[in-house]
Amino acid sequence: MLNLKILRTYKYVVDYASFKRAAEKLMYSQSTISKYIAELEQTVGFPLFIEGKVQKGLTEIGELTYNYAHHALIEYGHFKENVAAAAKRRTTIKIGGLERYLAEMVVSKVVEYQISHPQISFDLIHGTSDETLERLRAGKLDMGIVADRMVPASFTSLAIKRESLVLIASPKTYEQIVQKPALLTQLPILIDRKASVIFDYVLKDTNEFAHVIHVEGDFMVLAGVESQMCLGVISDGCFQEKEYHVLKVYNEAAPIRLIYPEKWEDNKKQQFGKSLLRQLQQDFFNSPQ
């Protein structure tokens, strides 16, 4: 491929019909202009100027070379404009999951990544695992963090954490159960109405609990267990073990998965996805299991 700098020099020489004028416009020395033209003629293999003088006009090869230089420089200008426009276009990456998962595992990594990639913007959308899966299927998310779910078609997954579904009681309620074990099946139990995994592992095939109260979210489960004489079913990642007593474990060490496309259609999203996968995998291996 012919050197663009040399082609530009040749075009200026022809346009101004003068080595001197071209040197002034390009702010080169005349010796540099002469050197570039000599290199171009050597590359082309034929003289470019009639009798070797620009004032005499162009040879046939010189005309062809000028036309090539003209179009090559225009195309290069378009290329630079497209590159600049692409750099300015912002790519938005949407990641969904429980608010707790996003806060614990994603926010810090997103902030760090955006500092070095200002053309990328992020939208973190909290929702239950079922809501997150539905948004992934509908194309409303690029990635999602879900608990113990089947991976949708055209997506793949990586286990990034393990949590167990447990039955908990406050220290005060636990003391009452120790004194009167029958309370275990008599007390009301709080569950998050949107956590379908609880229905699969706890309620589907059992009559263990006489009074089930559906509430909105893990925070309400914990608030109720702490303030009232009742039990709660919740993930063990939602609370500090010393604050509650675990009475029963249901799905022990169930995987929390990052769901992402098998094939990325956007290079910027793929680049971030690989970075996030690498960091989450490292966190998972370094965390106590």
UniProtKB/TrEMBL annotation:
Keywords: DNA-binding, Transcription, Transcription regulation. Residues 2-59 form the HTH lysR-type domain. GO terms for molecular function: DNA-binding transcription factor activity; transcription cis-regulatory region binding. CDD domains: PBP2_LTTR_substrate. Belongs to the LysR transcriptional regulatory family. This is HTH lysR-type domain-containing protein. It comes from Enterococcus dispar ATCC 51266.
